Amino acid sequence: MEVYENVLIAIRQIIRAIDLHSKYLLKKYGLTITQLIILKEVNALKEAHVGEVAKKINLSQATVTSVMDRLEKLSYIERTRSETDKRKVIVRITQLGKNKLEYNPSLLQEYFIERFRKLKEWEQTLVLSALQRVASMMNAERLEVMPVLTSESVAASSKDVVGIIGDNVNIQNSETIGDEKGTGE
Questions:
Q1: How confident is the prediction along the chain (185 residues), in pLDDT tens digits per residue?
Q2: Engineering a disulfide at 97: which of 20, 30, 76, 87 sits with its beta carbon 3.0 to 4.6 angstroms away?
Q3: H or E element in which residue 36 lies
Q4: CATH number for domain 3-177, candidates 1.10.10.10, 3.40.30.50, 1.10.490.110, 2.60.40.2470
């Protein structure tokens, strides 16, 4: 077997582990990874604005708003207009949302970070360097992503897609590529 085949297998194993963990969270807790991250962030901030949450987790405000719509329908969060600035929406976690977090659903990267921190500094640097090189080889180094291991569909602009697969593609939707609504979920 060629070395590159072993590299591709390792990449595929990582993707598969992420996918299986995503499905586990959805089946066991009824939340997607993005929903869980947003719920945890709203809980940590106590009283947050949509833009503040979006900035903290490195997602677009439109994506966060869409995910919050679903969390609100599930009664995990509540949104109200600010009394001082009616343009701003304040987000709070509900008791039902807090109850959901009491089950302490763990994100895959929490396990990874725990193990990664046990590596010696030179090993951490080696892993980082190798992964940055792989991202570069896949033309993915310029993509803006949150530091979360997820296989969920994330909205991508046609510019991002062209940057990854090259200029010789005809992209039908020049706005957003991702899920049907372009919400990143």
A1: 899 999 999 999 999 998 998 898 889 888 888 899 999 999 998 888 888 998 888 888 898 999 999 999 999 999 988 888 888 889 999 999 999 998 877 888 888 999 999 999 999 999 999 999 999 999 988 877 767 777 665 544 445 444 544 554 443 443 343 443 344 44
A2: 76
A3: helix 33-45
A4: 1.10.10.10
Nearest to 150 by CA among 120, 112, 99: 112
pTM for this predicted structure: 0.69
| Inter-residue long-range contacts of 50-57, CB under 8 Å, 24+ positions, other chains counted | 50/79, 50/89, 50/91, 53/91, 57/146, 57/148
Give the Cα separation of 82 and 72 in Å (integer).
17
